[in-house]
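Work Package 3 (structural annotation) set out to generate three-dimensional models for the target panel prioritized at the project kickoff. During this period the team completed the workflow that converts sequence records into discrete structure tokens, so that structures can be stored uniformly alongside our sequence database. As a representative example, we reproduce one entry of 184 residues exactly as it appears in the project archive.
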Amino acid sequence: MKSNHRFHRIRTSAIYTLLVTIALITDSVAIAQSKLRFSVAANFTRCQTSQLSVRRVSDQGAMGHIGVVYAFTNTSSSTCTLYGYPGFAPLDAKGQPLKGIKVTWSERNYMHHAQRQRLTLTPGAQASFEAVYSHIPSDNQLCPKSAKVQITPPNTYHHFSFSDRLTPCREIFVTPVEAGIIQN
């Protein structure tokens, strides 16, 4: 009887030791994975305006709306990341924002749907976004015409300005950047 009791105690102790060891290993793996995710996240280098170029790629009209696709290209020799929405402003001939035009960030517009995602741009890689607006005036008023657009890459402070003619009425919907070139 004593040997059965001793065997049971040894077996219980061994099982307990095994469970504690598994718990410690599991915690160690979870901590290591957490540190790995943190170090990977910490290594993201966001794209600076000086690393990029931007251009108008295409435009398309449908149901009273115009969708214009713009693309950023990583022109630097190092990889960087973009995340979220670009800044976008249509400007008049004096370089001032068009009066009465609201710019709204939106994952959905009349022509396209995109979700925010972290994009890694290797040298030469592209990311694009779309600006969609109605060009149908209301109340017989003409829609203002832009002479330029001002585009700021996501999470940066400096912008690009270049000649571009838009005739938005009321509001422009801008999608987040997404990998590659949007095909409409």
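Confidence is low (pLDDT under 50) at residues 16-42.
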